[in-house]
Amino acid sequence: MKNGTLGTVLFVPFFQNGKMGTVLFVPLFLFLLLFSPLSFAQAEENVIPPAYPVPDYVEHLLQVASEEVGYTENHGRTKYGEWAGDPAAQWCAEFQCWCVDQVDQRWGTNLLRNVYPFYTSSNTGRNWFIKAGRYVVRKGQVEGWGYEWLKGSSDFLKSGDYIPQPGDWVFFSFSGGPDTEHVAMVEFCTRDPVTDAVQVHVIEGNKPSAVARDFYDLNSSSILGYGTVHDVADITMSFGNQGEKVRQLQEKLAYLGFLDPTLVNGRYGEGTVEAVRNYQTYAGLRQNGIANINTQLKLDSEYTGRYQSDPDIWTVTDED
């Protein structure tokens, strides 16, 4: 296996009459297209190129997950549940966390609990991604926060706006409720050339008793949202919110002089409310202390302009 411009390349031996012949060099996405159980359906569709760079660790993660396809429960028990502490657990989350741990062990990374969560219960994984600032809701509001918008956009996110990327985690609710009931790992997405419909292709555990590949419509009502590899969206924030997005907001407010730097702590408390309100007054916006889309877009623009022209940031010094 080696890396190329199209991502990981697989070395696939070609056998003829029981003997190994020419070694084929097959890009990962083409390999998936040709040898997936869904290959005939996929041949009629177009694989959508990733919109963001695919990190090496995502290639490794998908490799590990692919190797597990076909694994089945043994009388309701799995190695993934055993690894996580409960051999008889419902194991969709345990499978994905196990795969991350395998990447850490094989390639010396430190992904588990840093890039991906370790969890075994409903909502915990989704909430981890929200706090990490890398969650995209399929539509509507993020519970306890507010509406989202994709970076570079001034419109609220609508169903179908975000096409998930390789390595993203998909959170599902099949009952129609707000709680997560299942999770899967995105391999790639395809677009039907006739209908223009987008499908999300995943690897998932506990389906219903095995590791398997499947696909879902991008606008499926069973999809709640995505834990993302990249930071692709911003979100409305207000008093009580905690996490990476709050910390980023506080850093910008502190840099512009509206927040005491000692209050940059990732918690949206009274000090942050007051700082946002003061900035809104300065910017001629409605003064409510809520970091809504208008406030953040204005703040981001001013922060970027000020930062890029800051001589203290860009002055080169020779310390040698």
Average pLDDT, to the nearest integer?
89
- Computed structural class: alpha+beta
Question: Which regions contain 5 or more consecutive residues with pLDDT less than 50?
Answer: 1-26, 37-44
Span of the ends, CA to CA? 42 Å
DSSP, total strands: 12
- Rounded to an integer in angstroms, the radius of gyration calculated over CA atoms is 22 Å
Oligomer: single chain
Q: What pattern of helices and strands is seen along the backbone?
A: EEEHHEHHHHEEEEEEEEHHHH
Global shape? elongated
Please summarize the sheet with the most strands: 7 strands, antiparallel
Number of domains: 3
Count the DSSP helices: 10
Strand content: 15-25%
Q: Helical amount among residues, as a percent range?
A: 25-40%
Summarize the structure.
The chain has ten helices and twelve strands. By secondary structure, it is an alpha+beta fold. A hairpin with a 6-residue loop joins strand 8 and strand 9.
What would you note in describing this structure?
The chain is built from ten helices and twelve strands. With 320 residues, it is of the alpha+beta class. Strands 4, 5, 7, 8, 9, 10 and 11 form a seven-stranded antiparallel β-sheet that branches. It has a three-stranded antiparallel β-sheet with strand order 1-2-3. It has a two-stranded antiparallel ribbon with strand order 6-12. Strand 9 (198-204) and strand 10 (212-217) form a beta hairpin. Helix 3 (56-68) crosses helix 5 (92-107) and helix 7 crosses helix 9 (293-308).
